[in-house]
Amino acid sequence: MKSIFDHVSHACSQTVTKTYSTSFSLATKMLSSAIRQDIYNIYGFVRFADEIVDSFHDYDKEALLNEFESDLYVALERKISLNPILNSFQETYHKYGIEKHMVEAFMRSMRTDLHKTTYLTQDEYNTYIYGSADVVGLMCLKVFVKGDNEKYNHLKNSAMHLGSAFQKVNFLRDLKSDYEDLSRTYFPNTDLSKLDEASKILIIEEIELDFAIGLQGIKELPIEAKFGVFTAYRYYSQLLKKLKKTPALQIKNTRIRVANYKKIELLTRSYVKYQLNLL
Hints:
Blueprint: H1 2-20, H2 22-29, H3 33-55, H4 61-78, H5 84-95, H6 100-115, H7 122-145, H8 149-173, H9 175-181, H10 197-218, H11 223-245, H12 248-253, H13 260-275
């Protein structure tokens, strides 16, 4: 029975989420059980594509990405895949009417990571962010509003800003590994080899603006999604605060983290704010 295979596929997507990101996994657990699996399914898909371009250095990344993308579109057309991650994703894709252009934009940004290492203009940067982060936020929003197009359109802008904020925090946190290991420079008009406090503050102010717009949308999310998304927001906000307090030179030379005990503390405080309607 296909239901058994689907169950195995779901378990794979959940395992990918829990293995690759403890913070995102924690936030996903705070979502309603009615939508939790679908967010696992989306994360599993985007995580695997990202791993191909970021981690598989001893293999032909382009060939692997080509194969993954080909299998992806076959899965979307057939509504089944023997790749359990893609089988899970196609289920969520069809269930909530995720538009194909979102998937295509995401894959374009992943493909860009195969060759492009420097973003010289704001337009290039914005296009990459849209594909790698904004559309992922929109895919998740499709799940959160459960097919309510009016609600989706109302919250679309804030979801994109929140996705952008998460991605930009990741860029700043991973600056050292991106620059040294992958030779990538995402922030335009910024010489990361000479990152100074002024440049760092400009980047952080841009992220803070994204967060402010994103938070307004979180306040209007359905109850099934609000606490989980707010938990993720709180985690990334804390990480940004830590980056803001960290000297630019240190950011260039180490990866800033939020300790596990701090994540639990953030979860507790987030729950209190949520229960008291203080969002």
